[in-house]
Automatic annotation (TrEMBL):
Name of encoding gene: CDC40
Region feature Disordered, mapped onto this chain: 43-79
Designated name of the protein: Pre-mRNA-processing factor 17
Any Pfam family the entry gives: WD40
WD repeats: 320-354, 364-405, 450-482, 550-581, 582-615
UniProt organism field: Ilyodon furcidens (goldbreast splitfin)
InterPro entries cross-referenced by the UniProt entry: PRPF17, WD40/YVTN_repeat-like_dom_sf, WD40_repeat_CS, WD40_repeat_dom_sf, WD40_rpt
Matches recorded under SMART domains: WD40
Keywords tagged on the record: Repeat, WD repeat
Length: 615
């Protein structure tokens, strides 16, 4: 057992290098001296604090001499006499101590508020981190807003408001960057000349002194009731009667003369009415005038039934030319449609044949300004005309005689006979002064006024078996009235609505087609509810600014309308698709009428002065 332990110790010591310089013994066993020397070396290499080991080692060293003094030289303490020069090699890198670098707590320069009391050194310490080499001088400069650095100028609210108002009123203000105590021309910005002229006065400083108050006559004693004037006393320099000077009097005389002249002109305005017959004989061999409905035209014009199926017109078959200016409206003879009445901006009204030779039969002259609207009575024997000369005139269709004239000193924009057979003596006119005026032909007097619109009245359309009528106006509204009741019982106006200066009732009496100024035709129900039919909106034409008349085909399968480009547009009623577009006129195509007895005949008129027939 001892032998094995010795071997182990020897092996351990040889591994540790303690016997590097000791020559191996001759025999295989360790000597006692060698053993003790090794133990001593191990003990001194180990802990110095072990007192036992120290004593043992001291005794053992005293007793035993080492084999080789160099082997234990590093274990012996240095002798004081000997000095040794040692080359010190320090291979550790230089590392800055944390305390030396961290000079204080970092403050973010963008902070506006600090929750503790920083020292001066902390507040003014330089910012850490490398400089951005790509920043220009302008970018590197301190900025507190996008365009640069704005110095805070402490101006109280009153001063700021005073200078702002002065600048907006007079065009100059004090320069906030200049000391205000040294006010000079350079301390103002804006209109410096104006500032010098006004001596730098602000809006709150009036340069002029207040004028002295006008003195009043002393009012006497308050005890005397009769002589006491008090606050009602007159001013000392007050004049009781203001007389115009000579120059003013001349001006006044001129104005009065002009007004009187103007009034006389208006009174004289209804020019003489005359008529021209353009055909050779007014009556045929049977004594029938041109009002007689022809029966040899291939269509039964006397039937009340509409054609079963209508077709799209394809080409122009006739042009009626005779008007020298734009045509403003056309109307077909009631029920038969064998005659066509047209009014124009040349102040004339003409009656044309629709069948046969298509001649101009008669011209009615009597208006001094452009004729705006015309309307036949139920039988067609008479018609009304409304013109910009502020007169409404009733004409005889056959003889051309002017039966009567009506005016209320306002421009009539539209005129309509009451279609009821019993009320053929009454008619209504939409005026420029926002009123709808009702006249009686027999007396020539106004019998009713419907005054609810907020703009000039553009159209009047009778609905619901002529018991009611619908009016549209420049106020972008649609109003429904009971006949002879001057309060509208229905008012339709939406923020999205535009004015509708042309309205047409459908042949079946169920729908109203309204030409809206936002380039679309809107369809309203014409029975009780007057609701907008959102499924039927006809678009695709340009009419903004023009009252282009709309019409339906007799079988209700098509909708026709002119437009601002002079085109005739035809839509399908069911699908609201734009089927056909024909270039009809050189200027605005203001009206389109579908003949009530024909399957495909459409009449158009335009501002080029022509009336055209299409088939």
């Amino acid at each position: 057992m001892k032998r094995r332990r010795r071997r182990t110790i020897q092996t351990l010591f040889s591994e540790k290098g303690f016997f590097a310089d000791v020559p191996p013994p001759a025999s295989g066993d360790f000597t006692t001296s060698n053993m003790s020397a090794a133990i001593t070396s191990l003990a001194s290499y180990g802990s110095d604090s072990d007192s036992e080991n120290e004593s043992e080692s001291s005794t053992s060293t005293e007793k035993v001499d080492p084999v080789d003094s160099d082997a234990t030289a590093h274990l012996k303490p240095l002798q004081p006499g000997h000095t040794m020069s040692l080359a010190v090699l320090n291979s550790a890198p230089e590392v800055a101590v944390k305390e030396a670098v961290e000079t204080g707590i970092h403050l973010d320069p963008s902070l506006k508020e600090v929750a503790f009391n920083p020292t001066y050194e902390t507040m003014f310490a330089p910012e850490f981190g490398p400089m951005n080499p790509y920043k220009s001088q302008q970018m590197a400069a301190p900025r507190n807003m996008l365009s640069g650095y704005a110095e805070p100028a402490h101006v109280n609210d009153f001063m700021f408001e005073q200078q702002r108002r002065t600048f907006s009123s007079y065009g100059y203000a004090l320069d906030p960057s200049v000391d205000t105590h040294q006010a000079s021309s350079c301390s103002y910005i804006g209109a410096v000349d104006e500032a010098e002229k006004n001596k730098g006065l602000t809006v709150f400083e009036s340069g002029q002194k207040k004028p002295e108050k006008r003195k009043k006559i002393k009012g006497g004693d308050a005890g005397e009731i009769d002589n006491f004037l008090g606050p009602w006393a007159k001013y000392i320099d007050e004049k009781d009667v203001a007389k115009p000077s000579e120059e003013e009097q001349k001006e006044l005389d001129e104005i009065i003369a002009k007004r009187q002249k103007k009034g006389r002109n208006e009174e004289e305005a209804p020019g003489e009415e005359k008529t021209i017959l353009h055909v050779k004989d007014m009556y045929d061999y049977q004594g029938r005038s041109y009002l007689h409905v022809p029966q040899d035209v291939g269509v039964n014009l006397r039937s009340a039934d509409a054609p079963d199926k209508c077709y799209l017109p394809k080409k122009q078959i006739h042009v009626w030319s005779g008007h020298t200016k734009g045509v403003s409206a056309i109307r077909l003879y009631p029920s038969s449609g064998h005659l066509l009445l047209s009014c124009s901006m040349d102040c004339k009204i003409k009656l044309w044949e629709v069948y046969g030779e298509r001649r101009c039969l008669r011209t009615f002259i009597g208006h001094s300004k452009a004729v705006r609207d015309i309307c036949f009575n139920n039988s067609g024997t008479q018609f009304l005309s409304a013109a910009y000369d502020r007169y409404l005139k009733l004409w005889d269709s056959e003889t051309g005689q002017c039966i009567s004239r009506f005016t209320n000193r306002k421009v009539p924009y539209c005129v309509k006979f009451n279609p009821d057979e019993e009320k053929q003596n009454l008619f209504v006119a939409g005026m420029s002064d926002k009123k709808i005026v009702q006249w009686d032909i027999r007396t020539g007097e106004v019998v009713q006024e419907y005054d609810r619109h907020l703009g000039a009245v553009n159209t009047i359309t009778f609905v619901d078996e002529n018991r009611r009528f619908v009016s549209t106006s420049d106020d972008k509204s649609l109003r429904v009235w009971e006949w002879d009741i001057p309060v509208d019982f229905k008012y339709i106006a939406e923020p999205s609505m535009h004015s509708m200066p042309a309205v047409t009732l459908s042949p079946n009496g169920k729908w109203l087609a309204c030409q809206s100024m936002d380039n679309q035709i809107l369809i309203f129900g014409a029975q009780n509810r007057f609701r907008l039919n959102k499924k039927k909106i006809f678009k695709g034409h340009m009419v903004a600014g023009y009252a282009c008349q709309v019409d339906f085909s007799p079988d209700m399968s098509y909708v026709v309308s002119g437009d601002a480009d002079g085109k005739l547009n035809i839509w399908d009623w069911k699908t609201t698709k734009l089927y056909h577009r024909i270039k009809a006129h050189d200027k605005v195509c203001i009206s389109a009428l579908w003949h009530p007895h024909e399957t495909s005949k459409v009449i158009t008129c335009g501002w080029d002065g022509q009336i055209k027939l299409w088939d």
